[in-house]
Structure prediction request, 204 residues.
Amino acid sequence: MYIPKYFKVTNIDEIWDFVQTNSFGTIVTTKEGKPIASHLPLGLNKKDGDTYITGHMAYGNPQWKTFETCEDVLVMFQGPHAYISSSWYEDENVPTWNYQAVHVYGKASVMEKDELIEELTIMLEKYEGNRVNPVLWDKLSPQLLEKELKGIVGFKIKVGDIQAAYKLSQNRNETDITNIISKLKNEGIPNSKQIAELIENRFK
Prediction:
């Protein structure tokens, strides 16, 4: 990923917080030179000093069969994004787009059954734990679970290279930034409001 110096993020704790907040990612592999992508909810786990992106996909999804032959898998995570009009600047310039994105590269492998169960248990706890009637692993019938397990493939990606970009108008002056925040908040678009808040928090 091309990252100008203004927008590069290197704080690993900040990056992992972002990944866990924006955990619906895109996994890209190749088969015979052709890219294949799947959009999936993903987890982040640390074991024995290594970091893994974890998840599962349908058994019928042919992408998992490419894990063995792909030297590197690319996982992309994206946050909010918004159009930035150059009419909001003091001086003449061109429009741009603000965004947050993280790319993770690593080697993927298929999970054993016990690892998959652990991954699914953690995922259910994350998304169901605070609900009124949570659907947790130990509340589902063994018959249903065994049936559903046959229809999915769990995977883990050992993290190697990490690239992170937060393009939040860091290259603009204070007057421009104040105006950008104000204009974004007034657009009434959820993404624009989120980007405005991110810029505001970063320049406090």
Q: What stands out?
A: The chain has a mean pLDDT of 95. The chain has one domain: 5-171. The domain at 5-171 is CATH 2.30.110.10 (Pnp Oxidase; Chain A). The two ends are 28 Å apart (CA to CA).
